[in-house]
Amino acid sequence: MLVQRLVQHAAQDPSAKPFHRMLRFDWELRLDLDGAVISDGLEPITVPDAAGKSRGAEHLVPAVVRTVGVAPNLAADDAQYVLGWADADSKPERVAQCHQAFIDLTRRWADSAEGRQDPIAQAMARFYSTGESTRLRPDPDAAAKQRVLITVDTTPAYRAPSVPTFWAAEVARRKGGGKHGLCLVCGKTGPLLDTLPGKVPARLVPGASNDAALVSINERVFGYDLTTQLVCSPICITCGEGLSAGLVRALDSDQTTSYGGQDSRLAWWVTEPVPRNPMKLILDADPMQVGDLLESIHTAQTAPSPDTAKFCALTVGGNVARVMVRDWLEMPLSTVEKNVAAWFLDHEIATLHPDEPVRQPLQRLVRVTGRWQRAERRYAFLGAKGGAHPHGAQRDLLRAALRNTPLPPSLLTHLLHRVRTDGRLDTPRAALIRLALLRSPLTTETPMPGLDDTNTDPAYVSGRVFAALESLQYDAFEGKLNTTYANRYFAGAVTNPRAALITGRKLADAWLRKFRGPRTGTAINHSRDLDQLFELLDASTGIPGRTTPKQQALFLLGYHHQRAYRFATLRQRAAARTTPEDTTTTGAELNQEISA
Predict the structure, then answer these.
(1) Cys staple from 323: which of 13, 212, 415, 511, with CB 3.0 to 4.6 Å?
(2) Is the distance from CB of 19 to CB of 198 less than 8 angstroms?
(3) Domains of the chain: total
(4) Helix or strand holding residue 256 (H, E)
(5) 523-563 pLDDT tens trace
(6) Per the record, where are the segments of Low complexity compositional bias (predicted)?
(7) pTM of this prediction?
């Protein structure tokens, strides 16, 4: 089904040209209609790119996959093919073979039924038959593998009217191998391909060092029943071209996502026009659009999308010159929208700051799996050296969002390690932890987005106690702290809450004595809250010792919920006060604690 969808996807592009590829050209060879060179030599092609640097110009030219053999393209190619020029890195014998193959192809083109009436094909043939090509002296600045664009009377030769028909027949001759059979894509009998006629540019396939092919079986050990080529994947010439073109069209569109340092690229499309794009919701997490999706599904007043519309998503990675399909999804769009709605509900979390969203965009979730750089007060950029982002984080999160599946246990383990190492648990990280817990088969309860007073799990309550002790110390010293209780004990408390909480309980008595005069009421409130929380621990199984990854996640979730609840309470108190001085003081206190 994947191959069929890619062929159908290619057919949706009316401007596509069969067996053509976008290539960059550095030089131009100008000919007149008699095949004579107009200028004294090659002229460089320079076009400014987005960064202002001069580069060659891109053209959609007749081209096929080129492996180790000699295989000329039509009407435009490398300098070694077009002019027979070699450089220090090339072998003269091979360059001569390439040049002769290009001449032979040009002559066949000019002698074909299509080319005999084409003045451009005839001009190129005369360029070689009259010896005009030998008049050009090699340009020392032109490398053998730099591409040369040929123009005839100001018209690029590849735009000649006879090119499409002749080139399609030439590709069929090269790639077909004379075999006929049933195509697994279209179900029709016809000439079959030995190899696919096109490749995907390396820039579109993370992990690929060369232009990559979707199917490449050049050794018997790689093929089923020790077969090579496309024997076990029979594809006709037309479908083979559509497969390559559809794959490039999908991966090179604006409906793709790939982050630096990640091992995959995801492309998606919908088989019918639809008013709402679920992938855009995952990527942007626009609050109003997400709210509309959740409301439409919750009320069920209208179907989210017609069931006839199919959502297709292809995730690929690369290995040298091969495309690896990491995931393929074809699902009714209505089902995908329900999964996306569940995705946002499952990672919804109470925020530490009022300006933060309760639901996170994909890139933020991927980014917080990496290292927190304390000096810069930001997370390491995706793909940065030492950023510590898992290579498959983007792929794992997208799969969970689109398929409504659990997160890999390795991702939660990595995130727990990063929280302990960095000493930072913020809203996006807490959202990921809640998502992992909610979808884990080991979780029997339902973690809430905000503080859950009814949750008596010892690990969850321990996290709340730790946050309560942290806030008690902050209030006792009025925020004037060099090293906090959390700085000293947070990392250890995640894996062994008992030691940290017993120490904190002893320190709490000294902190409570810091409150005097009008602050006595605050001390009473802190003492009451701690007593109630410790009673929850005593009533269950006591303070946990060594914790499992699930217990560590619950500890952190309880810690985050308690902090978020405290900050929300402080904001409410600040809003309730009437004097500007009181409001300013409380706001400053809140900001300090959030940054702490």
Answers:
(1) 212
(2) yes
(3) 2
(4) strand 256-257
(5) 999 999 999 999 988 766 788 889 999 999 999 999 999 99
(6) 575-588
(7) 0.81
